Amino acid sequence: MSTKPYSVVLGAGLMGRLMAHQLLRAEHRVVVHEAQGADGMGSAARVAAAMLAPLAESAITEPVVVRMGQYALNRWPHILSELSKPVFFQRNGTLIVWHRQDAGEAKRFEQLLLQNQKQTPQLPQLQKLGQKELAMYEPSLSDRFIQGLYLPEEGQLDNRQLLDALLQSLLEQGVEIHWNSSQTPDDFKNLKVHQPDWIMDCRGLGAKPQWSALRGVRGEVIRLYAPDVQLQRPTRLIHPRYPIYIAPKPDHVYVIGATEIETDDLSPASVRSTLELLSAAYSVHPGFGEARIIENATQARPTLKDNLPAIQRIGQRVLQINGLYRHGFLIAPAMMDCTLEIIQQGHSVKANDWGLNIHSTSA
Predict the structure, then answer these.
(1) Alpha-carbon distance 56 to 237, whole Å?
(2) Contact, 41 vs 238, CB < 8 A?
(3) Which of 4, 35, 111, 320 is found 20 to 30 A from 278 (Cα to Cα)?
(4) Which CATH superfamily includes the segment(s) 6-47+159-214+305-361?
(5) Nearest Cα to Cα of residue 25 among 51, 7, 46
C-alpha cells in the first residue's frame, strides 16, 4: 500500500492544474475532478492576457497583491522549467502610453505608481520616456506618442500554452483526471475507503455554493492576428473611459482587453465593448486596422467582496483557494506556495508576510 499522501484537486483551471502539478512534486498521489471538459473552456484562465505586471496593477489593487505578484514573477521561470512542453514567457517590461488630451490622467496615474513603489521598495523603478526613449523601446509607436512610462522587468506568458503544458505534465505523470465530474468537498465526507488526506478546492465560481461571498466579474477579451503590428511588450493605453492593454503573443497574435462588468453573465461581448476595445487598439497602432479578429470571448472571474484573494480552511483537510479576480496569472504561484506551506507546516509564513487572508471555518 502506498504511503504517499492522497490529495484530491477540485477544478482544473489555472489554480487547479498548478496545485496538482506541485502536489505531484511534493510526492502526493493526486486525483483531479473537473466539472467541464479538458479544453478548459469553463476556466477564466483561458480568457486572459496573462500579464505579470505587479507595479502596473498596483494602480487598482492592494499591496498584498503587488507583493505576491512580484514574488510570482520570479517564481514562474522555475515552474515553467519543470514542464516538458515549452511556454512563451518574457520579461520585457510594460509600456504605458497616452494621447495628448489625456496627459492629466497620465500624470495622476504616474503619481499613483510612484506612491505605490514606496510601499513595495523591491519593485523596479519606473522610467519616464520622451519620444527618443520611446522610439528605443517601441519604434512603431514613436510617431503617435511623444512620451510614456516604462515599468522594467514586468512580464507575461501565454495562458493557453501554459494550461496545455500543465495538463500534459499531469497526464505524463499518470494523474487520474475525471472530466465532466462536478464534485464538492462534501462528496468526500464519510467515505469508507480512499478517504483523501487533503482536498484542494480550486473551482473558482463553481465553489460559490460553499463560499457565498464569491461573485463574478465579467471580462471581455479580443484576440487579433496582426502581422502589420510589431510590439515587443505589453502596452497599456491610459484613457478616462476605456483604458486598455495590448499583450503580444507568439505568431503575431495580440490580446486586447480592459472591460470589467459586475456580472457573471457569459453571453457574447456587447457591440459597445467591442467597438471601444478595437478603437482604442487602432489609436495605439494603425496596423490593427488590417488585423483579423480571431476571437471575441467573455468569461467571469471569481472575485470576493474586497477584490482580494483568500485561502479558506474547512476543518482539518479541506483548503479552498479562490478570489483571484483579474490577477490569476500574476499571483497563482504565490497562492500555490502558501497552500503548500499550510499542508506541510500547518501555517504559511509567506501568507503572513504578504498579508494574505487565511480563514478557518468548522467542517
Answers:
(1) 12
(2) no
(3) 111
(4) FAD/NAD(P)-binding domain (3.50.50.60)
(5) 7
CATH 3.30.9.10 range(s) for the chain read: 94-152+215-303
Q: Tell me the C-alpha distance between 310 and 128, whole Å.
A: 35
Which residues neighbour 231 within 8 Å (Cβ) at sequence distance 6 or greater? 138, 140, 141, 246, 248, 254, 285
- Strand 155-157, strand 235-238: pairing: unpaired
**Cβ–Cβ under 8 Å, residues 201 and 20:** no
* Superfamily designation of domain 94-152+215-303: D-Amino Acid Oxidase, subunit A, domain 2 (3.30.9.10)
Q: Global pTM?
A: 0.95
CA angle 33–345–214, rounded 5-degree value? 45
pLDDT, tens digit (0-9, with 9 covering 90-100), for 309-331: 999 999 889 999 999 999 999 99
For residues 192, 362, 63, 25, the Cα torsion angle rounded to the nearest 10 degrees is -20
Cα 275 from Cα 305, distance rounded (Å): 30
Q: Who contacts 50 (Cβ-Cβ below 8 Å, separation ≥6)?
A: 156, 157, 158, 159, 162, 247, 329
The grid coordinates listed for 170 are 499531469
Q: What is the pLDDT of residues 329-347, one digit of tens each?
A: 999 999 999 999 999 999 9
Where do the CATH 3.50.50.60 domains begin and end in the chain?
6-47+159-214+305-361
Distance CA 234, CA 155 (A): 8
Residues of the chain with pLDDT under 70: 1-2, 192, 259, 362-363
